[in-house]
Amino acid sequence: MKRTLRPVAIVLLIIAAAIFAIPKPELLRYQSTSRAYFDGDGRLLRLTLADDDRYRLHVALQDVAPELREATLLYEDQDYYRHPGVDPLALLRAFWSSYIVRERPVGASTITMQVARLRWHLHTRTLTGKLVQILRALQLSRHYSKDRIFEAYLNLASYGRNIEGIEAASLIYFDKPAKALSLPEALSLCVIPQNPVKRNPTTASGFAALKTARDPLFKRWLQKHPQAARLQSFFELPLRVRPPEALPFRAPHLVTDLDRRLPALQRGRIDTTVDGDLQSTIERRLSDYVARHREIGIRNGAAAILNHRTMELVVMAGSANFFDAAIEGQVNGCTAPRSPGSTLKPFVYALAMDQGLIHPMTMLKDAPHRYAGFSPENFDQAFLGPILAKDALIASRNVPAAALQAALHKPGLYELLHIAGVENLREESYYGLALALGGVEVTMLDLLKLYAMLPNGGKLQPLRRLKNAQDAENPPTPLTPEACFLILDILADNPPPLRSQLPGQSDRGPQIAWKTGTSHAFRDAWAIGISEPYVVAVWIGNFDGTGNRAFTGRSAAGPLLFEIFHGLSGGRPWKTTGSLNPGLLNVEQVAMCADTGDLPGRYCPRTTDSWFIPGVSPIKVSTIHRAVPVDKQTGLRACRPIPGRTTMKVFEFWPSDLQNIFRRAGIALKTPPAFEADCNLDTQSVAGTPPVIGSPVAGLEYRLRSETLHQERIPFSAVADADVRQLFWFVDDRYVGTCKAGKTLWWVPVSGDFTVRVVDDHGRADHRALKVGLVRDREK
Q: What is the spatial distance between Cα 74 and Cα 172, in angstroms, rounded to a whole number?
């Protein structure tokens, strides 16, 4: 016997010396943990598995219910706080019973010894294994306090199935944290680790075995806490226990996206900004909407809701059905880059307002135009002619939007997208003027962030998906509050996609500022709106990019957007402008000439109220409607008023470029008649406005190839007053040609510096410098 024990003793001494010499061991951080995602109200959304496919959550000792701590010590190790990590008397009894008299094995493991077994995965049914366990327990006691070791036990112990730790067990079985356990729940859990397989609470036999062990423990508990006898009836009832397979799987797209993005070491409890009830409501509404419109080919969609006051994302429904493989339901439509269609146009208009290019009533041109090889077209393949800026935005006309984007100086739309953090942007030249028309890919979350700028007065703030996310310090402000207010005011006039109200029908409900978008080939239908605290985005389409002519923003996505807003508001009269109070902004509302978009002149036939930004907006008095003397007999324009012979009549003096657009759009104008023959040029020249040269472009050097110089041409064009019939062109006072008003003269160029002058048929003139250079093939 001595010969047998001597080598063992030597080995144990060596092991003991090594154990006590090695550094302080890590208790918990050596293993990965689960992530428990909660909604904004603290309700579980999902509990993920740790890397080893176990449910495991770490919890501090003070965050465990006192009843469970006390019951665990009562059941497992009553002298825990009095022994040095091992209980010598208990070990002697166990050794005598197990190895001397060979009776049934008797357990003597303290909580510290159990932590050692769990921490190092020791096999303690052999004598050597038990001795190593004892030495490891002493090592732990040397480095850690009793509370830290007890905390480690509660985090490492098995509680049945693939569940480790009291926090995971409490959350899975009872849907509550360990600190909220009731006494019956606490006593039920603390007896499981001794035999987690047999005492599995999710089966009838397992719960029966658990109850057999728990009832004696409750009797011992009553000896210390006799007042707990009032809970006796609760111990007779079966516990409502949730098995792991019944764990919730809510807000699947958001949780999956977060689980992919969060740092690997960020584990444990994750509090999200999701409104759990609203999330479920929107998921059902989206699924029902898709089902109702399946006959027109709508099979999938996505929706998200942002609280712009807190910048918290409260809903993310990335598809109509996460579990439907036929629609690729697990793809997240809220984070997938897609063409936004026309949804970026409001920001082009806002930038143009801030740069003093337009105000809501500025007259824009919806007519064919070519930009260095790019000719934007409208969705309906038609042109409306002159159109007010606010109407062009509401009607989502492409040509005016492209013209405004071309007129912007830095920062433009591209810089705004860059500041907003839109990922994978190419060089600005790659997009050109198609940028505002859907030529760039953005995500739904990008659009939510951009649209939240409007009610937030131009502040560009990051979205928050986690409750503990830090607020951005000094967020950029790419837009002024004034421009944001004007855009919201315009978008609030965008009519709803539904049919007009019936007589007597209530118009109560939220005011919604909204915009639609339809991508090329009808692949994406968008609708984004703002009302009171929320920004809502809706997308309808297919993840495989299949197009459908039914996929237009107004008809496919718009109705769902309005359904969501009416559900959110509950019929309350929500407003769109957020915290923007026009009384506190540099904006004013004045009467404008409804036909021209300028301040009304004396003869403007009708006016409408509109906002503008004093000192910024390009406001002028309208001169379109003018009264001129007309000879009663000839109907010609008289040189001057003559009582009894002439009468004053009002005509529309539209510039020649707008006249051409009106004609193309089939709109008849009341243009002035020609002057009488005896009216001299001096009389005619003071009666109107001079022409304005549009081409050649000021400050631009025209570089022509010498080898093809005989084929090169430079266009000469000018905008003339409504009474002009012809324009006469001169280069350095040399007459080069005549063209009709609104038409282009093509000049055969030579190299040099010139002065180009245009004179209309009433003697009014304009001039511009022109520089022409030659480029030989070898210089290219």
A: 24
